[in-house]
Q: What sequence folds into this?
């Protein structure tokens, strides 16, 4: 039963994170579309930290050209688990409410990763839409402690 509840929560979380399509192919997200490791990309390393009660992404802003693919290299150099979710501010806000109900939810979607201390991960992302998008850690309390940033796409 617990597994079913987690599956339902994960499905709802995916919806909250900005997926508007269905299936592994052709999915659309608020912030663009999954990229491909086989295509050229610019690498942006994002370090997750938690020092003296402040939680941060370094850098906390990224400027992107519309159509550009970014290879995000994520590194959790903190002492607690963190996550990286790339979506619209509105979608992240909805997802944060879901995380309050299911704080142990794991993320491993094209636009999100959960990382334990010392772990690294990658996300390949194509920014197909102009606008300002947000990357955030939505583990309860982390966003409020400063763990969010922006991707500005022009």
A:
């Amino acid at each position: 039963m617990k597994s079913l509840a987690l599956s339902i929560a994960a499905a709802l979380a995916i919806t909250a994170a900005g997926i508007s399509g269905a299936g592994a192919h052709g999915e659309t997200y608020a912030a663009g579309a999954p990229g491909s490791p086989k295509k050229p990309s610019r690498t942006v390393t994002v370090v997750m930290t938690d020092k003296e009660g402040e939680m941060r992404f370094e850098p906390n802003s990224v400027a992107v050209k519309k159509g550009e693919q970014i290879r995000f290299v994520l590194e959790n150099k903190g002492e607690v688990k963190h996550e990286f979710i790339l979506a619209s501010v509105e979608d992240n806000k909805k997802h944060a409410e879901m995380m309050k109900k299911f704080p142990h939810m794991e993320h491993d979607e094209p636009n999100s990763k959960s990382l334990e201390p010392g772990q690294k991960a990658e996300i390949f992302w194509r920014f197909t839409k102009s606008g300002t998008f947000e990357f955030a850690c939505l583990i309860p309390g982390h966003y409020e402690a400063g763990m969010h940033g922006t991707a500005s796409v022009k």
Notes: Residues 1-25 have pLDDT under 50 and may be disordered. The chain has one domain: 2-153. The CA atoms of residues 48 and 94 lie 22 Å apart. The domain at 2-153 is CATH 2.60.40.420 (Immunoglobulin-like).
